[in-house]
Specification:
By secondary structure, this protein is an alpha/beta fold. It is 39% helix and 24% strand.
Length: 164
């Protein structure tokens, strides 16, 4: 599976990373996992990063159905998608038009997206501490996780008490 999501209830954010060749079934599976996480709330912020996706097998009909049926976020949830290539940016814009919410924005750079979301690169990195390349890992290894214990352990190792 090439879509991995981390739910961070303490920061009220979900980090979703796309890598390799991505299909709509993988996106739907990630949405299902986010929704099933007991610590997830539909108004959490979301950072979606398509930077490492090499192929995106996502079409208008699929994205429309995703928005109507599978997307676990509320219309008020502040969400930023990073699409650095023409294809990823275009797919992001297509989904932005489908969801038709000013709370969903598409950006070319991570820095712009993070600034708009009101978070930092270090906070996103802390949320995904321990994330490894998941391109060739069994699907059940991709269940959304509560990253709080790993982040706290990482903060303890670094001597930082916050998101520095």
């Amino acid at each position: 599976m090439c879509v991995t999501s981390f739910v961070d209830p303490s920061d009220r954010i979900v980090v979703t990373l796309f890598s390799g060749s991505v299909t709509i079934d993988e996106v739907k599976s990630s949405c299902k996992g986010i929704k099933a996480n007991p610590k997830f709330e539909p108004d959490f912020r979301q950072f979606i990063d398509l930077s490492k996706a090499s192929e995106l097998h996502l079409h208008y009909q699929d994205l429309n159905q995703l928005a109507e049926v599978s997307d676990p976020f509320s219309g008020d949830a502040k969400r930023a998608l990073v699409g650095p290539t023409a294809l990823s940016f275009g797919i992001g814009r297509m989904y932005e038009i489908i969801v038709n919410s000013p709370s969903f924005q598409v950006f070319r750079s991570q820095m712009e997206a993070l600034t708009w979301l009101g978070t930092s690169e270090s906070a996103i990195r802390d949320t995904t501490v321990g994330l490894r390349d998941t391109t060739n890992v069994a699907p059940d290894a991709h269940a959304p996780s509560d990253s709080t214990p790993r982040r706290r352990a990482a903060q303890g190792r670094s001597g930082r008490g916050g998101y520095g």
